[in-house]
Write a sequence for this structure.
């Protein structure tokens, strides 16, 4: 079983080009861009560490998307 995202890396994963797992494919841009867009609409993207990695949730409460 994989370990979750370590506490020091939890904020890092939301930076562009940041990758905490070099063995998994990707460019490290998805979470950063997602958070930028969601926060631009005054909504929220959260991350909860779990044993297999992370659970990322988007909350659309303030934008027109939610209405």
């Amino acid at each position: 079983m994989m370990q979750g995202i370590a506490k020091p890396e939890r904020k890092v994963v939301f930076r562009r080009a940041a990758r905490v797992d070099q063995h998994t494919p990707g460019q490290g841009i998805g979470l950063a861009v997602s958070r930028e867009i969601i926060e631009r609409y005054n909504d929220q993207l959260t991350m909860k560490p779990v044993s297999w990695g992370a659970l990322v949730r988007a909350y659309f409460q303030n934008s027109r998307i939610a209405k």
Observations:
- The chain has one domain: 7-66.
- The two ends are 40 Å apart (CA to CA).
